[in-house]
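Technical appendix A lists one of the benchmark inputs used to test multi-chain prediction within the project. The record comprises two sequence entries:
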Amino acid sequence: MTGYIIRRILQLLPVLLIASAGIWAMIYAVPGTPIGAIVGENATPEQIQAAIQRVGLDQPVLVQFWAWLKSAVLGDLGRSIHSRDPVLDLIMLRVPATLQLGLSATLVGLILGIPVAVISALYPGSWIDRSLSGWSALALGVPTFWLGILLILLFAVQLRWLPSASTYVSVFDSPLGALRNTFLPALTLGVYVSGIFARFLRASLLSELKADYVRTARSKGLKERDVVGRHVLRNALLPFVTVVGLMMAAFIGGTVVTEAVFTYPGIGRLLIQAINQRDYPLIQGVILFVLVAHVLINLMVDVLYAYIDPRIDYS
Amino acid sequence: MSGGVQRSLDLARRVFARKGALLSILYLAAIALVAMLARWVVPFDPVAQNLMSTLEPPSTAHWFGTDELGRDIMTRVVYGARTSLLTASGAVIIAGTIGVPVGLVAGFFGGWRDAVLMRIVDVLLSLPGILFAMALIAVLGRSQLAALVAVGITGIPSFARITRAQVLSLRKRDFVMAVEALGGSSAYNMFRTVLPNSWSPILVQIVILSSIAILLEAALAFLGVGIPPPTPSWGEMLRTGKSYLYDAPYYAVLPGIVLTLTILSLDTLGRTLAWVLEDRHELAEEAAPDRMVP
């Protein structure tokens, strides 16, 4: 097990290294001088000097990359050109909002997706299975930004129950305020992931239902709901955990479109702002942050899966 | 060659036999036709402004109403179809011409080539697709070409992986080994023996990627980093329409219907093809995590 984890980490290192080299090289690819991309075109001489010191712009390219990587690993992602704040601080301010949205969307997805999958799998090929599959296809096919607009039209413009633009209210500060502001974006994203969850779990359930132990359970006279509830669902949920984990990884930064629909202040909106303001240190910082988070959560999902399924031998 | 024609006809018959796929093909054909004949289909200019008639609700003159600059929304939807279809074809071409050979070489040779190429593919997958595209656009600047290239590059991993998996399943088959034993070059073997037998998953992938490309292009435009205005784009229309939800709800709703139906049709077609060609009934589960757009 430990060997497996170490091997996975060793496999990830080159990926992280190449990807961060790509992110670092951005400042050389954009128009203008690299120092301009780091501190902005109207920076003071002191700021320019400090940046040159920090990343060693007078040094050979590899030395510069190493200096940048070293400060990045130590948490120094430079300063935003626009606000002059440290990039890492700006990102950390947005993390709770993105986490709250991602987790609530996952919850909505599970609440909508699991019943759909279980009912479909119990009556495969029936009209109810076909209509639920149609629902999943719809959930996956409707662009989130259009669904978000429709939900705003219904709940904010017509019914006036919820605000059309959401802000971040922590669920720990004000549960009701958090619900008011997170419900629509979480529902928008949740409908989408419920489609993925439902399809995956249905397929997983159907393949488990064909297994020998199910025939044994049935032949010993177990009620169908016990066969499914006690045996099948447990086994089918194993691979399903992976999919839920992958979705959560994708939600770090991947919620950018939904955040834009509801002007929700998460990491995605920070990136859009940074791109619009050509704030390259901030762009680099956000992308690097999302990259590392994405890769690490994926790794954790793999490890968790190996841990909860003792049948898998990774040696 | 006639065998190929026969097979294509046979495939078409089996796809057309499914009601959902037939409807999807009819819808997509209508969109493509309207996009090509845009000038004759809609009487207005997609970019000419008319500030005397802004945000007019749908009427017999303007079926979808007019936008904030007095342009006919239906006209812009029709021309927006061009943008979507061009992006989809361009992205598929970029992703296919890079991804398919990468998958071929990685799967055929294995070893260090496989390791290196697949690590590079992993790098492309290390970010959610839309963020990868946004990062590329941040570097390239916002333009029609940048949007196309960004969407295309995002599609490379799926082509590479699917081709590689197909090649691995063919690699040790007798007819491939025979070509090798007879002294056929690796290039000949890859492109003339393995590739022609790999076309079904690639075809399915082309349809799926078209859907993802159209969605991604619209999402980028919705975020304000896609194809720059005044070029009509469905995503851009939703972005602007969202500012007028109280005065002109139809503005964001109607183009969204056309976009959604396009995505749904391509998805349905992709699933049907996977079903008919490969008996893969669980295709969506494999494709899903790759396509994350929200």
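Chain B touches chain A through 47 residues (CB under 8 Å). Residues 3-287 of chain B form a domain with the MetI-like fold fold (CATH 1.10.3720.10). Comparable benchmark entries are summarised in Table A2.
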